[in-house]
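Reopening this one. Same input as before:
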Amino acid sequence: MAKKKDTVVVTLECTEARQAGVPPSRYTTFKNKKKHPDKMEMKKYNKFMQKHTVHKEIK
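Same output, byte for byte:
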């Protein structure tokens, strides 16, 4: 199991929402910085666009 200091809370924001002119949906999740140093990308549901879109890690 990963140590607590290796994991951080990250925020995922929709990449397609701002281009469409709707508010972006956001999700929070945990990430292990040692195993995955790059920015995280996941397909999640955007309730404003009512479809699954790519969400990318911010800050």
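So the earlier flakiness isn't reproducible anymore. For the record, The beta strands are 7-14, 26-32, 41-46, 51-58.
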